[in-house]
Write a structure and sequence with these properties.
Low-confidence stretches: none
Number of domains: 2
Strand order of the largest sheet: 3-10-6-7-8-5-4-9
Number of strands: 18
Structural class: mainly beta
Order of helices and strands: EEEEHEEEEEEEEEEEEHEE
Strand content: 35-45%
Shape: elongated
Distance between the termini: 22 Å
Helix content: under 10%
Radius of gyration: 24 Å
Length: 284
């Protein structure tokens, strides 16, 4: 998985807390600030050999048909790693970084299989021999992440993962565009669905290559800040119970609320096939 949650931090603003915790442990009705750090490491792999199929990772441009089982093409990029391009999609930008020498960037126009890509231009002139990249070359998806769809939920700790508001039954969902991991100022997210005021405020900003250990020349990192009121205090059919001192089902015995989220980042919002996703649901 190349998309990870680097950290989660929660502050109780109502109590004036200054030292965050890594889980939701606060009083109902309090104002909470969640800070989520996520990082995408670019579906990358490192070349470790120049000898095909010797057990290490090889990368070749314009590889021969004996290796690719396809008609030779100066726009082909092939690896002997069976899963090397498994997560790569048509339209992705692939960068080949040779330390201290050159960097080549091209766009995928066809994913032949998980080992072979057809790019938008030649790696070598017509008729030239193959290029076998040296060890320590890094190949990675460098498609810029410029848009986010963000879903969140406050659910009971044994409840199946979902992002549905317990207050009105709508999915808690927001989005933003025009992002860059190098834009270090906050961009407000557009909140969607009914009663969006219950979501508080949501923003996202770039975090460079992240807090580490990032992959050099590859990582794109972001920080999401969400301020919200912890709730609901109770559901509509539990009002009489509250008057009578009966504990709501959400808080009986060892039950408690937890914050869950899903972040889908992509170059734009219109192509679901190129979205990179991170889901976090295991914080109690």
């Amino acid at each position: 998985m190349t998309f990870i949650t680097e950290s989660e931090e929660y502050l109780n603003l109502s109590l004036g807390e200054t030292v965050p915790t890594d889980h939701l442990l606060d009083n109902l009705g309090d104002v909470i600030q969640a800070t989520i750090k996520i990082r995408y490491d670019g579906d990358n792999f490192v070349v470790t050999s120049e000898t095909p199929e010797d057990g290490d990772v090889v990368l070749i441009a314009n590889a021969g048909s004996n290796l690719t089982n396809a008609i030779r093409n100066e726009r082909h990029l092939w690896t002997d790693d069976p899963t090397g391009f498994e997560d790569t999609k048509e339209g992705d930008i692939i960068t080949i970084y040779e330390p201290d020498t050159t960097t080549t960037t091209k766009t995928v126009i066809e994913k032949v299989n998980s080992q072979l890509l057809l790019m938008d231009s030649n790696y070598v002139p017509d008729g030239d021999p193959a290029i076998t990249y040296p060890a320590n070359t890094v190949a990675y998806v460098s498609t810029p992440l410029q848009a986010i769809e963000y879903f969140f939920g406050i659910i009971e700790n044994n409840e199946p993962l979902n992002y549905t508001s317990k207050t009105d039954g709508n999915e808690r969902h927001s989005r933003a565009t025009g992002l860059s991991n190098n834009i270090l100022t906050d961009t407000s997210m557009l909140q969607l669905g009914a009663k969006s005021n219950q979501y508080g405020t949501l923003s996202i900003k770039g975090n460079g290559i992240g807090d580490g250990p990032p992959t050099p020349e590859v990582s794109q990192a972001f920080i999401i800040t969400h301020t919200f009121v912890l709730g609901p205090l109770s559901l509509a059919d539990e009002v009489d119970n509250s008057i009578d001192g009966v504990v709501p089902d959400l808080f009986k015995d060892t039950n408690s609320l937890k914050y869950v989220f899903k972040a889908e980042l992509s170059k734009d919002l219109t192509d679901p096939n190129r979205k990179k996703e991170v889901v976090e649901s295991d914080k109690l």
